[in-house]
Write a structure and sequence with these properties.
alpha+beta, three-stranded antiparallel sheet, elongated
């Protein structure tokens, strides 16, 4: 049985991107500050990982205002959900395959 490394998505190799997608797949949308607090990371670090996921078209960025305050929310795209689930499936197969030895 071949190890499904080709099914692992490089976009999710970083643990923060994996965590971001976990949150966005589990929730309809999440705002920047809530993500930052949840993941306990800096603005710049979060912004750079969100940009990477946006570049892959795995997330949508929604900018709006709450009163006079800007509010940026993120949500997983269908492409992003599928890529994330395929990645998890490949990890699960890899783990199960290792247990057979």
């Amino acid at each position: 049985m071949k190890i499904p490394f080709d099914k692992l998505d490089k976009a999710f190799e970083n643990r923060l991107r994996l965590q971001i997608m976990s949150v966005l797949v589990a929730n309809e949308r999440y705002d920047f500050n809530s993500l930052k607090d949840l993941l306990d990371i800096t603005d710049g670090n979060l912004a750079s990982h969100l940009k990477g996921l946006e570049k892959e078209e795995y997330i949508l960025v929604n900018k709006s205002f709450l009163g006079r305050k800007p509010n940026t929310t993120y949500q997983a795209t269908e492409k992003g959900r599928k890529a994330f689930m395929d990645h998890l499936d490949a990890l699960e197969k890899l783990i199960k395959q290792q247990k057979l030895k």
